[in-house]
Amino acid sequence: MPKTRRAVISVYDKKGIVDFAESLRKLGINIIATGGTFRLLKKKNIEVSEISDLVSFPEILNGRVKSLHPAIYGGILAKATEKDMEELKKHDIEPIDMVIVNLYPFEAVVSKKNVKLHDAIENIDIGGLTLIRAGAKNFERVAVITNPDRYNDIIKEIEDEGDISIETRRKLAVEAFCHTALYDTTIYDYLHGKFKPDIVFPDNLILHYRKIADLRYGENKHQKGAFYCDEEIKENCIANAKQLHGKKLSFNNILDINDAFELVKDFDEPTAAAIKHTNPCGVASDEDINKAYDEALAVDPISAFGGVISLNRELTVLIAEKISKIFVEAVIAPSYEPGALKILKRKKNIRILESGGLNKSSHGWDLKKVVGGLLVQERDFKPLIMDELKVASEREPTKEEFIDLEFAWKVVRHVKSNAIVFSKSKVTVGIGAGQMSRVDAVKIAAQKSNGRCEGAVMASDAFFPFRDAIDEAAKAGITAVIQPGGSIRDDEVVNAVNEYKMAMVFTGQRAFKH
Fold first, then answer.
1. What are 319-359's pLDDT values in tens digits?
2. Is 414 an active-site residue?
3. Does the residue 513 lie in any domain?
4. Active-site residue identified among 42, 137, 171, 345
5. Is residue 317 domain-shared with residue 429, that is, in the same domain?
6. Could you say which of 42, 171, 247, 277 is catalytic?
C-alpha cells in the first residue's frame, strides 16, 4: 500500500486548516487546494499548488466549477492496483491519497430570518460533495476528512504509525457519507418547504437525529438504548438541558423528565409537578413556587417516591432542603439558587438538570414508532381559549370553577388516556391515568383524592360515553366538569350533570395521549 503523499484541500470552514496543512507539509505530503483555501495557505507561506493550475483550467461560473476534472477525480478514484496506476500514468495523472473538505454552510444560511432563495441555492455545495463521495468510495486507498476535529488525530497517527490505517480510513468514510447524507437532507427539507409549502407531510420522510449518548440500557436491562436529539428543535427541552449533577440519565429517566418538564412549560404561573412513569402524581400552581411545590408533592407523596420533580421557576433553597429529605430520581428546573445546588448535590445519585428557559416551539412533529412503520403527527400546540368554551349545563361555572377547569384541562393533556383529573384551587387532588374505561379513571381519581375532592372540578381528556362517570364524580363531590363533548349520549351526560346541579363545559377538542 503506497503511503499518503498527496492531499487535496477545499474547505469553507478554515478552522485549524493552516496548522493541519503545515503539519502535512512537514510530513512530506504535497497539497493541492481550491481558490480560497489556496490563497490562505499561500499567505501563511505554506507550500501549496492551486487546483486550477493542475487541471490547466481556471475556476469558472463564479466558483461553481473548480474541482470537477478527471485530473482530480482520476487521482482520487484510482484503486491501488497496477492496472489503475498504469492508467493514471498514461494520462499524466498523479494519485491523490487524502481529501480534506467541508461544505458551504447551507444549514446556517437557510436558518437565517428572511433568507432569499438565491442565497440558499448559491450555498448548495457541488464540488465539495463530489470530492467527499469520491474519497469515501475509494476508502481502501484514500482518507477523506470532513471534520476539523479530526486533524490532530490524523497527524498523530501518521507520525506514530507512518500512515493512516485502513481501520481509520473506513471510519472516516462512514463519517463522510453521513456528512453528505445530512447535507442533502437539509437541502431536501428546505426546498420541500419552499416549493411544496401546502404539503405538511412529505412523501418521503428523512429524519436527522444526532446521538447524544449511549445509555446503560433501554426500558429494561436486557434492551440496549441510546438517546438522540433533533438539532432543528431550538426550544428548551430534555434534549438540550444541562445535567449539573448525578448519575447518567437512563432511558426511563429521560422519558419521565421530558413529560415532567413539558407539563410545567404549559403554565405561565409558577408551577410544580411530581411525575412517575410519565404520569403526574401531583401538580400545583401558586404565586409562590415554594407553596406550589409543597402542594404538588402533598397530592400523592407515596406515588411520587422515586419520581421526577419539575418546576417552571428557579428552584429555591427551601425546596432543595425538602427534596433532600426524600428519594427522587431527578429534578429539572430553569435555574437553581446557588445554595440550592449545594444542598441537592449532597445526594450523590440525584440527577439535576437545568433547562435554562421555558420557551416552546411553534412547530415540530410528534413521532410514534410501530413495528414496520412510523406514525407522524403535528405536536399538540392548540391552546384552550376559555371564551370559546360551550356551557352545556343549565348552570354556568363560577369564576373560581372556570379557573380550576382551565388548570385541570392543562394537566389532563399530560396524563395517559383514558385520563381524569380532579383539581381544586389550582392543585390536582386526584388523578386517574391510563385506564381502559373512563368510569374506572374517575373512580381511581376519587380514590387517590383521599376525600379531598369535595368541591373540586373534573377534567376528562375525551367525551363521556355514558353517564356513569358523572354519577361517580357526583359521589366524590365534583361541582364542575370540562370535557370535549361529541358523544352520541351527550344529552344523557348533560342531564346527569343537571340532576346533580353541577356545571359542564365542552372544549370541542380532545386531549388524548397514548
1. 999 999 999 999 999 999 989 999 999 999 999 999 998 88
2. no
3. no
4. 137
5. no
6. 277
